[in-house]
Each structure stands twice: as C-alpha cells, then as structure tokens.
Specification:
Helices cover about 30% and strands about 15% of the residues. By secondary structure, it is an alpha+beta fold.
Length: about 200
C-alpha cells in the first residue's frame, strides 16, 4: 500500500500543525513518517500523487528534493550504493548532477543535516517556489551542514532509471524519515557506520 501523504498532511492541519519549516512541524511530520511501515520506493514512484513526476532535471532543480531509481555506471567497483536516492541537487552539469542523498545518514543525523539545510531556505511558503539556496561552496562553509559530506554523490543522467519524483516542500520532513533507501552490497547499518566515520 502506498503512503497517503495528503491524508497525513490533512491530519496534521486538523491537529493545528501547519506544514512549514517550524521545529514543531518538522518533528510532527518526522514522527508520522517514522511510524510508517510497509512502504517501498517502487510504490511511491508508481503512485506519485500528491507528488509530480518529472522527465529530467535542470538548473532550476537545484535545492529541490527528488526521489528516483539509479543504476550506477561503476557499480561493480563501488563498495556500496543506493538504488533509490533521495536527493537535493547541488550543482547541475550537461551529463550529470551533484547532489546530497539523505539516505546515507541514519535518522538522527538526517534530522541534524536537514535542520541545517533549512537555514538555506528561500521562503517559508513551502510550495513550488520554495527551495534551498545551495552550492558546494555554501555547504563547505557552514558548520551546521557538516553531515553533508558522506551524502554528496555525483549522478550520471543516462544512468537514472526512472522519472524524477519531485517531493513538494511540505513533505520534505516526511520523506526524510521514510525507509526508502535500498543499499546494495552492504546493509543500512554498515553504510551508516561508514558515513558517521567520515563526518568525525
């Protein structure tokens, strides 16, 4: 069964939780996602509502959040990789893009990184105009964003194996905590251990 994101958001509003980037809102949506089980990235991609499927990214995609399927070119040489990245693009090139895949961190560290990323938000509307004002230079300069390091990956456009699912800003914190990662060659716990070592 796919997750009914809109139903969860509507329930939050009924309880007086506004889908914005306030601490209370973030914690509510993260807790709701953490209680969600029996979800697969395939179901989310195949049942995109209330999200939007996009054929390809562009410079305007920087600082927005996307889920997609990926088949790495060098997968035979990689120690591990995620075939369903959840990514904020940071830089865009003609054949690839650099992005932060949030899946490479355990949930507490994801939350810390996301709290830092909210410092880069361009407005509090949490609609299609909302995105993060980010670049590699900015990420390197802010101590609150130090957890981005193990998450920064380059993705070749011709190895993206699905459309891009655009995650609307009001659902960022829900997507952040959903168990959508699918690591190959190593378990999630092994990947998280490696990521924490890189940060320290």
């Amino acid at each position: 069964m796919p997750v009914d994101f809109k139903k969860i958001a509507d329930n939050a509003i009924k309880q007086g939780i506004t889908p914005d980037n306030s601490i209370a809102s973030r914690e509510w949506f993260r807790a709701a996602a953490a209680r969600t089980s029996n979800i697969s990235p395939e179901n989310v991609l195949n049942n995109p509502e209330p999200f939007e499927l996009i054929q390809r990214l562009s410079m305007q995609s920087i600082g927005k959040l996307y889920l997609f399927r990926y088949d790495p070119k060098t997968k035979d040489k990689l120690p591990y990789y995620d075939i369903f990245p959840l990514v904020f693009p940071v830089e865009y090139y003609s054949d690839s893009f650099l992005g932060i895949n949030l899946h490479y961190l355990p949930l507490p560290y994801r939350a810390k990184l996301m709290n830092g990323l909210y410092e880069l938000i361009n407005n509090n509307k949490m609609d299609s105009t909302t995105q993060l004002k980010m670049s590699y230079k900015i990420l390197k300069s802010m101590s609150s964003l130090k957890y981005f390091q193990p998450c920064l990956k380059r993705y070749l456009i011709n190895h993206v194996a699905s459309k891009f699912l655009y995650v609307k800003p009001i659902y960022w914190d829900m997507a952040l905590f959903l168990p959508l990662e699918r690591f190959q060659k190593k378990s999630s716990s092994q990947v998280y251990s490696e990521s924490i070592k890189k940060v320290r």
